[in-house]
Amino acid sequence: MTDNPIMLELSGVTKQFGGLTAIGDVSFSTRKGEIFGIIGPNGAGKSTLFNLITGTYPASKGDITYKGENITKLGPEGVAAKGIVRTFQSATVFGNKSLQENIRLGYLFGQLSVPRRFADRSLLSSARATAETVTDDVLAFCGLADDRERIAGELAYGVQKTLGVAMAIAAGPTQMLMDEPAAGLNPVETQEMGELIRRIRAERGIDVVLVEHDVGMVTRICDRILVLDRGQVLAIDVPEAIQKHPDVIEAYLGADIDLHQV
Amino acid sequence: MNTWKILAGLVLAVGLVVWPFVIENRFLIHIGTMVCMYALLALSMNLMLRIGQLSLAHGALMGIGAYTSALVMMSLGFPFVVGFLLSGIVGGLVSLIIGPILLRIRGVYFVLLTFAFGEIVLLTFIEWVDVFGGVNGIFGVPRAQIFGYVIKDRSLSYLMALAMAAGGFFLLRALYRSEFGAIMETLEDDEELARSLGVNAMSYRLAVFVLSGAMAGFAGGFYASYFTFVSPGEFNFWTAVNLIVINVLGGIASPVGVILGALILVPLPELFRDAVQYQVLFYGLALIVFLKFMPDGLYGLIRKMRGKRNDR
Asked: What does pTM read for this prediction?
């Protein structure tokens, strides 16, 4: 995997809120076919870093590139148009629509994202024609087919989170950014979410970067892990090395977490 | 069932077109014309309410259309068709220019900004006397004229207004049922999710605002030639407030509700001339009652009674 081409690359990314440096000089790169995890104690700046990559916040300094293309200033929709689709920490779905309509919209929005493309009638009609097939396919892939007619807002929290991932898949990304995919899930659901993420990479060929609080899940499914502490990179390594890394243990012990218990 | 629906629609359409020629009551025809004009305006406001950005600039946008049409005909000597077309185009163009600035702001600040914009437009009409005629406005605006035929007859004016309202109605209905409508729906509550999937929310907001401004502009162009005068007092923020009340009372969720709202609210001040001083009070009370007890408006209530939900 170390020979695979570089996909997402951050160089010297810094974010300041007023005088406070939330993210200081963070650099790393992910490779094709990788599931890349970002962990860190509370307040380490995981969410800020995530929001910088997704274009939600502009970076104060530094560059973010995807496949060599600078995406630092594109904003959320611009980043998405480059094939990088995010999921949300809390279940974020179109609550008053059916589950299958959610996925259909995920696909259509992904297809019609740019206004210039929206105006293209032939693209629109071909997107409409394939929407049903894609929806069925994604429903089956995520194991949501039984609930397809139900209203998304009335589903159990875990199902809604899976639906959020399903919508992101339907949008047709090459890179998925997941904000705490296991947050709010019970151990069984967490296990299933981990499986789904592995299958997203294996069967869909989508690279994954995830920010996660659940260290257990991250060490199980990620190829490499970045540990963030006080806005800075503490370590980047494979899970086995991260678990033994003295600085990492120190940082987590400071936050009263035993790595071998979680 | 479907045949009945089509038949009912045909009867309704024929009835809407024919009644002024059967009931030759000038007063009723005037009210019918006003209902249609305000229906078009309320539909343009409906676009804004759908994306969660309540605009108080719509009176001013209507005024911009009205003054544009009047000046293009009177100062530049163009025929009505040009003036009328430009009323909508300029309305849309002004929205296109101010949209990128205003639409970034949400909630109550957007309302305040649109209010301020409306006031600036009104002040321009009032203070720039040489061009806009000051407080008195502009008198003697030429009547509508299509293919060389001057529309003097009230029933023909009504037909023109009806065509505009119907055009706005069917345009919005088609829009709301399309993918564009699906995107619009997400802009009020689910914008972050839509953007994360690649929807350029700002350009959709702008497109909605431009369409809305153009519709208000066309209504203004019609207004100028119907009354043959324009004056700044007609285009203040109360116009926008009336449009909001029409929407809330009729029901924001469907263009049918908007038409229903216009049908009920527009004739009221005309029919109860003596009670006009209570109009604002009535509107206030109606707003409170509807927002509190019937947030889906009258049309929402009708749908609920017929046991349907959430369908446009």
From this structure: 0.87
